[in-house]
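We now fix the convention by which a protein and its fold are recorded. These numbers are not coordinates but entries in a learned vocabulary of local backbone shapes. A record is reproduced here so that you can trace the correspondence yourselves:
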Amino acid sequence: MINNLYENILNNVDIRQSLSALRQDIKEASAKSRLQKLVAENPDHITNLLGNEDAKSRKNAALLMGDLELSAFYEPLFAGYEAESTLFVKSAYLEALSHFDCSDHLGWLRKHLEILTSMEIPPENKKHIDAQIRELSRILIAIEGPQKHTFSGFRQKFHCILLTNRLHKDITEDQITDGTLQDFHAGVMVTTENIEELLSIRTYSELLLVIPGTTTCPRDPRAAAQAIADSKLLDLLKNSHREPAPFYFRINVKGKLPLSAKSDFTKKLSSELERQTNRELLNTTSHYELELRLIENKKGTFNLLIKLNTLPDDRFAYRKASVAASMKPVNAALLVELARDYMIPDAQILDPFCGVATLLIERQMVVKGNTSYGIDAFPEAIERAKINTEAAGQIIHFVNKSCFQFTHDYLFDEIFTDMPFETGHKSDDEIYEIYE
């Protein structure tokens, strides 16, 4: 198939379609390698297509050149971008160039980004100019890396939402000594000038921030960008970090929007937000420090929250390894808090279904025990439990066997475990036997 399609291009037959089909075929590594060898014999066969009279053929040719990543295509793509007059094709050249190390053209890239971001853009051209800005930004981030920001706002006022188990919100509330609590259906809402206290609490899954004075944004991407740009978000970011803007963000839309509509909304909102903040907010999917979380509400607008990845969160840093059935650390921490009054210091502790040891590790962090034993029939879980235990700086004795086969010279003070439940692998009778 590769040879036939390439032959079509050499014979000037169905060029646009053949280029598109080649791009699909070379997603498989061996096919890509075969085409690279064919093209490398005479790269001009593809490079010359950048002068084709059909704009879509030029676009497909540029994208294929990027996919193939042959060094012979590097300079022609730069030249082709500057010579190209059709706007929807120009971003394809930049997308292709993102496959190469463009560091020797750093000045050129900065210059073109500055030109695009400072020009007046007619509405009909906005989509295509935004696409170029997006690709240029990606290339520059790949070369220079994003500027990392250090959180320094430990004594500033923040309106925080701690996402918790809804049945046990009080467990988290009781650990907050400095702040004003408000009722919130999905967790705990607190206004505090001591966010450092919150960072040590182990019973919430996520800490999100409310932008002061801005709790919702419209469904229209331009209006939503305007609302966010006009909010106090940038003030919050600048006042709580040592380094200056730009800040790198991604958008996470939660709701019933179809995937295609969600993707389109996200792309338009990101481009518009960059523009309306004079690029003090920059969109990236891989190096973001800030997640804008838009949650669809019953009114047809979005509730707006932010998650700061610059906030240090090493609560569960010991969890280096897991298996599919592993308990989430935050759930283990909650169980430990619920059992706190029943635990005794210097106890002999047994977890007969220990998995990767999360529950035993969390138990030891709250009330220091004496000797802990973890049993599990799954060898991989035991090996990963050892990794986590070492990372936590604890000592746990592990036994890889069924708990029914385990014997010991003395009794334990506590059995602390997450009991098995009915699954596709265990029947009701097996579960009842374990409980008996």
